[in-house]
Each structure stands twice: as C-alpha cells, then as structure tokens.
Amino acid sequence: QVPLVDSGGGLVHPGGSLRLSCAASGFNLDHYNIAWFRQAPGKEREGVSCSSREDGSTYSIASVKGRFTIDRDHAKNTAYLQMDSLKPEDTAVYYCAVESWGCVDEYTIYPQDYGTWGQGTQVVVSS
Q1: Which of 5, 75, 76, 122 has the CA that lies 20 to 30 A from 30?
Q2: What's the CA gap between 101 and 113, in Å, rounded?
Q3: pLDDT tens for residues 41-89?
Q4: Nearest to residue 36, comparing CAs of 16, 124, 75, 123?
C-alpha cells in the first residue's frame, strides 16, 4: 500500500488551472503537516506550499502566492493544490509530502524536513 499518491498533473496553456491531489492511505492526514514541492529539470526541489496540522494555517512562497491554494478534504483523507493563472515557469514535477512537524512559514518549506513522499505528477505549462 503506497502511503501517498499524487495525481492531477498534465499539460495546460498559460493562464490555465490544474488541481493536484495527494491521496493518503494507511494513516490520517489530519495528524500531519502537508507540503507541496516541485522540481523543474536541472533545478533543486523547491517547497511551494504547506498546510499546518496545528491550526490549519497555510503558507505559500512568493512566486505562487495568490495563484496556488493548498487545502485538505478530511473525509477523503486527501490534500490538494489548486493552481490558477499558471505560467510556463510553473512547469515541474510536483510532489506532496507529509511530516509531523514544521510548516511554520513560507520561507522554511524544506524537502529534507519531510519524510513521506508521493511519487510525483508532471505539470507542463506551455502554449
């Protein structure tokens, strides 16, 4: 049983939208902080957004703030990343990850702090 499964990626035109999903199995997402990361070709993995289990606060890096929204569906045990007004520079493989600590601001969403990962889903923004 794969603990996290990412899905929802695809090809979209600039200005379009996608909604990524991160479905959890075998554990309750409510007990964990959730983060979305992305990795573009030749670049390091970058933290994009996170959702705190403590108080529900969410944080997003400046380049996606106002365009990307992270949320959870408690009944479905699934997290989402709603991506609007997509730009070519958003092209990357997107991963969700969970950990029991962290997610305190948008400046410290570090991949090394997260222990359980989805397999990734490809997002391509191109005309």
Answers
A1: 122
A2: 8
A3: 999 999 999 999 998 999 999 999 999 999 999 999 999 999 999 999 9
A4: 123
CB neighbour class for 70 (10 Å; exposed up to 12, middle 13-18, buried from 19): buried
The CA dihedral of 119, 83, 38, 8, to the nearest 10 degrees, is 20
Query: How many C-beta atoms surround the C-beta of residue 65 within 10 A?
Result: 12
Strands 116-117, 121-125: pairing is unpaired
| pLDDT digits 0-9 by tens, 8-49 | 999 999 999 999 999 999 999 999 999 999 999 999 999 999
Question: What is the C-alpha to C-alpha distance for residues 67 and 82, in angstroms, rounded to an integer?
Answer: 8
And the tokens for 64?
């996606």
Rounded Cα gap, residues 81 and 53, in angstroms: 16
φ and ψ at residue 90, rounded to 5 degrees: -85, -5
How many of the other CB atoms lie within 10 Å of CB of 64?
23
Burial (0-12, 13-18, 19+ Cβ within 10 Å), 33? buried
Retrieve residue 105's tokens: 């601001």
